[in-house]
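Appendix B. Chain record.
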Amino acid sequence: MDLTGSSYADPILSCAESSRWEEAVLGTDLEAAWRAMNAAGAAVGDAVLLDRLEISERPLVRTLVLVGKGHNGGDALIALRRLFDRQPGLQALVVLAAGLESLKPLTRRALEQLNPNRDRRLEVVGWRGGDTERLTRRLESEPFDLCLDGLLGMQFKPPLRSAVRQMVDCVNSNPGIDLRGAVDLPSGLGDSSDAAPFRADFTYATGIAKAPVVDEANRRWVGRIRYLDIGFFFARKPASDIWMLKDAILDPHRRLRPPESDKRTYGHVFILTGSRPYPGALLMSVRAALRSGAGLVTAFAPESLAATFAPQAPEAMWVPWPETLAGSLALEGRHLLIARRDRCSSLVVGPGLGCEAETLQLVTEADAVVDRPIVVDADALQQGVVDALADRQERSSPIVATPHHGEFKRISGLDPSDQALRDFSRRTGIITCLKGPVTRISDGDRVFVSPFGGPVLARGGSGDLLAGILGTTLADCPGAPLEAACRGVVWHGRAADCLSRARGQVAVQTTEILDHLATALRCPDHGS
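Structure tokens predicted for this chain:
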């Protein structure tokens, strides 16, 4: 399947391109624009309530909404209306950057629809013409559960000026705001950006994900990304070099499995990794492959570990492997793989493997022996190993590499960037999953961005789980390795989101992500 032509991904466009596309979709039809505004605002409100669960289950009480004259302000006001509907005790302070007479018609309409909520202590004030000294003190120091930024949109040209500059500075310096959300993109970001935009914890990209939102240089202002699809690409999609992955890529796993299927239908994952000094990585990869739906899993484990690990993951077949003196997998065990190679659907190498020369040579020989889709992670991400795998001219099966930024620089010699990612993948023929706060996947042609996951993944072992999941998705979908890689990354990230919402970001263990793989499938994220 071509991911760009499916419901699995949407294009990421510059602000100028987004403006032209939105105009082509909505034209001058104010009612169509009003429907889009309502869809975007409602989606922002729903997403905010989900993301707040990572902090607290306590209902929202105090909310601050910053409103500019344009449609981002209207989106923010409709989001507030949604929050009023769902949080009965909510109090809100709405600060208008300009006077009522300056509001665009639809933004004014959105404000007027908040009137029925005035009994819930809605306070609307204007920055201009008001007591700016008092407002400054409030925005700098008053505590709020939530601040929504709806000041400026994609038409922004730097610098931030007058009232907006003051409002952004006040809110950015307020330590009493629990969650900061930007509607569409933080005020002050655009194709050209201000030096100090609104600082968001979450940016709710509505309708079209704009390129500044996924630019790594803007990460400190953007925070985490939520893409809220409201149907702008239902009929067709423009060309783009970079695409936003959506929750819909998990839909194949949400369908009933055929009743005539058996364990061989869903692939046989071989996991060749682990060592005596790093035993946990092997077990986590095995458990991840099992929990993500593999029909069969064979774990080739250091012989000193196999008997201990087998009761902890009895569904896998455990094959004891000869060890080096240091406890890594020895080359002499190669015959164990040769004897079983016809059963293999995919091969996972790297987690906890160690960096002994003999063991790294085993990786390249194992790939030649099996010639199946291979996931290369962690210790196997050495330049010599990757180059040897990529240089095998007779290889007919795909390679998926999963480096973090440091490992990417090690195997490519390049500083991480979208262009470097494309260049490396094009040169080597490797599908590369560049892990980070926002994971990017490329096959050398396009870059696909996964907005899922978050700081809960900033733990040892999260990459070992991803490797096991990717082993399963590759085994399940060997003819479409790019799709399989993107699906595994999204699933891993969505499970992490579900874990954070259930337990928070701090007091959890990495392996608890596995407990939420099912939640990610059974509770689709309709926003993306």
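Further analysis of this model is presented in Appendix C.
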